[in-house]
Amino acid sequence: QVQLVESGGGLVQAGGSLRLSCAASGLTFGSYTMGWHRQAPGKERELVAAISRGVITYYADSVKGRFTISRDNAKNTVYLQMNSLKPEDTAVYYCAAAITTRWLPKLYDYWGQGTQVTVSS
Predict the structure, then answer these.
(1) Alpha carbon of 54 to those of 72, 76, 82, 91, 96: distances in Å?
(2) Under a CB-based contact definition with an 8 Å cutoff, are residues 53 and 32 in contact?
(3) Cβ-based neighbours of 85, under 8 Å, separated by 6 or more
(4) d(C-alpha 10, C-alpha 44), whole Å
(5) pLDDT band (50, 70, 90) for residue 55
(6) Model confidence pLDDT, tens digit, residues 99-116
(7) In what order do the strands lie in the sheet with 18-25?
(8) 37 alpha carbon, distance to own chain's centre
(9) What is the Cα–Cα distance from 36 to 109, expressed in whole angstroms?
(10) Among 115, 29, 8, 121, which residue's Cα sits nearest to residue 75?
């Protein structure tokens, strides 16, 4: 059974930092593209960052220069380092795994339950 478990969310003041982690199990982690998505209240879910099975990364324009995605295949974990946080970054953050070799994946096969990030002004 595949599981993606996010952690590291919380409440932070604007300008602060958080590091999200997503621990994967039940899949061959190194074979998957990993993505971090977020959904704010009343808004559609959006892709924030993705990392290929290799070293290719993608960032939404809204987070470029502030967020960094990385992965540790030995630990089956993907990270999202979030710096210079803004109130508009407030959302539930989800990690997801995609087996497709397409870049960027349009569909993800597995999703975590999400972790809340709240940035106060």
Answers:
(1) 11, 14, 21, 28, 16
(2) yes
(3) 12, 14, 15, 16, 17, 18, 66, 117, 119
(4) 21
(5) confident
(6) 988 899 989 999 999 999
(7) 3-7, 18-25, 77-82, 67-72
(8) 5
(9) 13
(10) 29
Mean pLDDT of 80-89: 98
Residue 102: partners with Cβ closer than 8 Å, 6 or more residues away? none
Q: Are 71 and 34 in contact (CB under 8 A)?
A: yes
For residues 53 and 116, give the distance between their C-alpha atoms in angstroms, rounded to a whole number: 26
For residue 104, what are the β-bridge partners? none
Residue 33's pLDDT is: 97
Residue from 102, 97, 36, 118 nearest 69 by CA: 36
Find tokens 């972790």 and name the residue. Answer: 115
List residues bridging with 48 in a β-sheet. Answer: none
Helix (H) or strand (E) holding 112: none
Q: Identify whether the C-beta of residue 115 lies closer than 8 Å to the C-beta of residue 8.
A: yes
